[in-house]
Amino acid sequence: MFARSIVKAVAKPGFRPAAAFVAPLTRATFSTSVRRSEPEVPVVSYESGQRVEERINFPAGQSGPVNPPGGDQTKSARPLGADAAKHLTPTLSKFTLPGKVAVITGGGRGLGFNMAQALSEVGVRGIAILDVQEDLGDNAARELSEQTGVDVRFYKVDVRDGLGINQTVQDIVDHYGALDVLINAAGIADSNIKAETYPHDKFRRLIDINITGTFLVAQAVGNQMIASGKGGSIINIASMSGSIVNYPQEQSCYNASKAAVVQLTKSLAAEWARFGIRVNSISPGYMDTALNRVPALEAQKRIWVDHTPQKRLGDADDLNNLAVYLASEGSAFMTGNNCIIDGGYCLW
Ligand SMILES: NC(=O)c1ccc[n+]([C@@H]2O[C@H](COP(=O)([O-])OP(=O)(O)OC[C@H]3O[C@@H](n4cnc5c(N)ncnc54)[C@H](O)[C@@H]3O)[C@@H](O)[C@H]2O)c1
């Protein structure tokens, strides 16, 4: 048996999308004030194998804002009107998803919710949000439906629960009669944990969510896409941590999990190309979401920003257009690709 609940949110006839910014219902709890006057930051380095802890001066105001004002705020989505769609050029119309159905894990907030909004702005008719946090997923479904009129369903399900995921995906197909796009955004992060003392249960939990969960959802959705004979697009949210080792925080498990997501993406892309399924990954750099808005990371964020050529964290909607591109016919010949979108962090 598995625990699962569904919330369906369909806008009432005659609804009008909200024009103003939507209040960030779930962010307040996670916001922390920016301590710009902090004169020093802790740094950990290794010299000839010896671990060295030091503090370096980091003059305030030299590295750009750590948390840009409003960076993680959710903006209101607007649907693409039928009239507007008719006037798009052939190139622009390839970036739309008319009548498509999308599944988004971790869509209750953050990058997943922002990408759900983006898909709802380019013609998607149905979106299923899968998230383990009921209050977040429920709010997200309601907001999305109110803003765009898209038929949104929320499933409270854990991506580690294979049985629950299979049943959820079957219910999505039964309801919408199709399933065209999957964005695998559910994930967790552990950082500042040394490899020497990494607790085994913590390590296994993160791997189970970030890589096994990504696989279980991809498998369930992939099987439906194969059965439909129409293929589809799967987008896995990896991280630049799958390609580089972050500094200064120690986070071996997260880095390894995201490298595995990149390699899983390539493997599935190769196996499923014959079914018309494209599989790509997005590897974000440091993004300004609740995942990073925790007091323990405030000092380190100054280093992250300083090591980013664009001198800022990514906004929560900075992946949106790439997600639309990868989901749409615009990227028809792209599969197995890992797209790094990081303000240039990996260049240095
Ligand atoms: N924020 C960043 O800087 C950053 C950078 C690179 C990659 N990423 C990746 O992007 C993805 C989204 O990150 P975010 O910043 O939006 O995080 P977030 O914490 O704001 O959102 C993640 C969502 O996933 C859900 N979730 C977590 N575990 C789950 C589970 N077992 N089953 C179902 N849902 C679950 C959470 O409830 C939450 O709603 C993650 O995979 C993360 O690793 C984030």
Please outline what is shown here.
The chain has nine helices and ten strands. By secondary structure, it is α/β, with parallel strands linked by helices. The site of nicotinamide-adenine-dinucleotide has 30 residues, from helix 3 and helix 6.
Secondary-structure map:
Elements: E1 5-9, E2 40-47, E3 50-57, H1 82-86, H2 90-93, E4 101-105, H3 110-120, E5 126-131, H4 134-148, E6 151-156, H5 162-176, E7 181-184, H6 200-228, E8 232-237, H7 252-272, E9 277-284, H8 298-306, H9 320-327, E10 338-341
Parallel strand pairs: 4-5, 4-7, 5-6, 7-8, 8-9, 9-10
Antiparallel strand pairs: 1-6, 2-3
The site of nicotinamide-adenine-dinucleotide (NAD) has 30 residues, from helix 3 and helix 6.
Keywords:
single chain; 348 residues; alpha/beta; Rossmann fold; eight-stranded mixed β-sheet; two-stranded antiparallel ribbon; 9 helices; 10 strands; 17% strand; binds nicotinamide-adenine-dinucleotide; oxidoreductase; NADP; NAD(P)-bd_dom_sf
Strand arrangement within the widest β-sheet reads 1-6-5-4-7-8-9-10
Rg over C-alpha atoms, rounded to the nearest angstrom = 20 Å
- Tally of structural domains: 1
Percent in strands: 15-25%
Mean of residue pLDDT? 86
Give the overall shape: globular
Find the count of extended strands (DSSP E, 2+ residues). 10
Low-confidence stretches: 10-39, 56-65
Under CATH, the homologous superfamily reads: NAD(P)-binding Rossmann-like Domain
In the CATH hierarchy, what is the architecture at level 2? 3-Layer(aba) Sandwich
N-to-C order of helices and strands: EEEHHEHEHEHEHEHEHHE
Bound molecules: nicotinamide-adenine-dinucleotide
Largest beta sheet, briefly? 8 strands, mixed
Percent of residues in helical segments?
Answer: 25-40%
User: So what's the CATH class?
Assistant: Alpha Beta
In terms of quaternary structure, the protein is single chain
Distance between the termini: 49 Å
The DSSP helix count reads 9
> Structural class, from secondary structure content?
alpha/beta
**What fold name goes in the CATH topology slot?**
Rossmann fold
